[in-house]
Amino acid sequence: MFSKTKRAAILVAASALLATSLGGNIAYADTTANANNTSTVTTTSTNSNSDANVATATNDSVDPNKTVTTTSTNDTTNSSTTANTQASYNNIDIASVKVAMLTELNRLRAQNGLSALTAVGVLNNYAQVRTDSFTSTGGVDNHAGWNSANMYPYNLTAEENIAQMPFSMIGTTDPTAIAQKITHEFYSEMYDSEPNYGHRKNMLNPYINYVGVGVSVARNGMVYFSQEMGNDQASYSKYNASDVYSYFLTNNNDYANVSKYDIADADKTSADYTSRENYVTADLRGGVSTKNAVTPLYDRYGNKRTDLELSPNTDWISDMIAVINGSTFYHVSTNGFVSANDALPWATFLSGASVTATTNAKIYDNNGRDTGGTVNTNSKWIVDRRAVNPLTGVKMYRISTNAWIQQNQLVQN
């Protein structure tokens, strides 16, 4: 097993390598700024008998941009079910859930060779204030109400993860089970329409020491969760400022940092998902497109396969990025990987998103080349993929088959 120090170094170094492989411009995790602080992939659809939303949002203290995602669910309850459900969620032991959430968070960190976070009253109090506020405002506030000054003196390297989940989806009052469900959601972002794994990044930050947990239950059965994380001056001073900053540069908003979680990884039993020397992996929710040539496949050891190849200009679902002997590959089948040099990687969203062109925006093809076409200013487009233009290093969104417009010529709606 790796030592804690070596494991943290691998998290940063490998993620930085993956970020580099995805393009020249690296974006941050979805954030709220604190100006004072430095095979086949299966997507599971879940139906809920709730009239509320599932939502998660995460931030940190580095970048002022933030992305918040929600998934709506339909109400199919009857009065008898509602009464029984209400009786159940009123029996949630909030204090026990908060303890269980801290335990599960630190269990996740231990699996990744990271030290446990210490709960402190200041952060616990603020986390509870945050979740209590959601019960009266109708839902998580996309960090609009977050103020890291209220976390003082633990407001250095400040981060927040917040979420809401209806009790009908939680389905239990057992504190450990609730803690595992919300930690799993923070880790995997299964219900985010535009997942970016920022929650996972916050929970696995090797450069924070303290945390507070908040849990509140609204009268309609919505359960709210908050994790408020940071450092005081003494703990912050233990770290090299450039190392802290480098960690925030490892997330490209499309893949997860190198990590593991037994609950999330329970179905990953093949050798493709087993870490070993010179083989590290990170989750990707998306796929790759091959270029204008027959594309070779490689096995999990980086050897070129002689039995299979991929056709030119074809799309392949991918659930994982792998760094094999220092080179980056994308997992497209059992024991089948395509080199990052031979394909365009992209992230998919779990539900449709849209963008609006801010100018007569240029259209690029799958290879990042300017096609000579444009879309009109203020035109709105449904998008299903996001990638990094391999020629310009700028993020781009797909508006049609083999047609993309760049982030610097659009706004997300």
From TrEMBL:
Residues 103-227 form the SCP domain. The keyword Signal applies. Keywords: Signal. SUPFAM superfamilies: PR-1-like (SSF55797). Residues 40-82 are annotated as: Disordered. Residues 1-29 form the signal peptide. This is CAP domain-containing protein.
